[in-house]
Amino acid sequence: MTDKRIDFLGVPIDALTMEETIDCIVKHIHERRPAQHMAINPAKIMHMLSDPEIAKTVRNCEVITADGMGVVWASRLFSDTLPCRVTGIDLMDHLLSKSAEIGLKPYFLGAKQEILEQTVAHYTARFPNLQFAGHRNGYFNETDERGIAEHIRDSECDMLFVAISSPKKEQFLGRWRTLMNVPFCMGVGGSFDVVAGKVSRAPDWMQRFGLEWLHRVQQEPGRMVGRYARDIPKFAYFVAKGKVLGTKVP
User: Fold this and answer.
1) Burial status of residue 250 (CB atoms within 10 A of its CB: 0-12, 13-18, 19 or more)
2) 104 vs 35, 62, 124, 219, CA distance in Å?
3) Helix, strand, coil percentages for the chain (3-state, nearest 5)
4) Predicted TM-score (pTM) of this structure
5) Distance between CA 48 and CA 46 in Å, rounded?
6) How far apart are the C-alpha atoms of 62 and 46, rounded to whole Å?
7) How many CA atoms lie within 13 A of 114 on its CB side?
8) Which of 22, 71, 139, 235 is the least buried, fewest Cβ under 10 Å from its Cβ?
């Protein structure tokens, strides 16, 4: 836990800038104090409301930052205001740059094999000094998990980036984090798909105005329309109740 952690409607979030987040993570790694990062957005908060196991996983993380602009804007309705969003893909990018600079070794877990290889190749070309401890695609069964966790442990990686969708990502880290004993781990969602060029990221102006969700809807309407139509109104209602009645995530 950092010294800048706030309570946002029952959700712990660290009020950190990108630079502060990176410094905090690197300090954990150098001190060999295992830490997990969690990115908080409206959908994650809704998952916490409906799934106590997800809520427990979030609260057990050492570094928790706001990924969605909706969370940053909502925080402005309360006394503790978050300074900015710290997106997962940008944090991963900065950490890999830092790894190449100071000699840390990352491990990539997730995505299809082709996407995974393209992502590794992208960062290897971009940061010639970067050395990977290993990588593995995200297609496996629960019976495979122990073997994968042991392989990650034996790789002696400094950072683990998990590109698996929720809630499987949280469940995997929750079950195997102790065994893997990685100094730092974080989920990065669909970041590998973006880096590999399978999907495009929203333009800068959409990112500034918190409209990345609209860009995702345009790219994957069949999958995203229902999700956002469900989560955004629920989140707005939850924030309103929190402001008026003091309702929080239990």
Assistant:
1) exposed
2) 15, 19, 13, 35
3) 55, 15, 30
4) 0.91
5) 5
6) 20
7) 2
8) 139
